[in-house]
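TL;DR need structure tokens for one chain.
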Amino acid sequence: MSGCILYPAIDVRDGRVVRLRQGDYEQETRYPESPLATARRYADAGADWLHLVDLDAARSGGYTLAPLLAAIRADTPLRVQTGGGVRGESDVEAILQAGADRVVVGSLAVRDPERVAGWIRDFGAERITVALDARQDEQGIWRLPVAGWTQDSDRQFGVLVRGFADAGLRHMLCTDIARDGMLTGPNADLYRALTGLAPEVEVQASGGIRGVEDIRTVQSAGCRGAVLGKGLLEGRFTLEQALEGAVSC
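>> reply
TL;DR here they are.
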């Protein structure tokens, strides 16, 4: 298996590092360390990338983390993919100018995929990460909620994935909402299906990762990256252990 890029995640709400349970803003865990201190710690542990999420903007629009992003880029060597509240081309431009390496586009990628496909062409495939956050309904169909996972959409998962692949997308992040913040392990079946639909896209797994074995699981499912959230923040494993495991497996 090829190596797996690890993206330690910092989700920010009201200026603090938090984690939500299954995307529910009413089920929030707060952590005492500041976002910048957390980023520094991850850089010191050997991370190359950071996944930075503006939860306030994901719900209401208007990316608010440009000052934090600039500070992270000034104080650490981390490359950063970040998003939340991206609604237009000007948002993408502003986030890139603030220092982002990639802009994560979530809700708008579901609502207006043609527009986001245009950004892939205009800004380049290395500058856009499409985030498809999925929830499986009682019939086993994968749904794609938007607006910080507070509203449902009627887009078809497979059609959307293949459409972005055909538009030249290189980086896609996919979260199984039911596993997000739950520490129940990743959904390998979801990632096998996704990488089968678009083998040319580098998929990042998100949701449920508890340690090195789970990283190996998503690698086996075809993922090229893994986002590390609650398990890392709560000390279930260290970033050093994860990095060693991702290289060696």
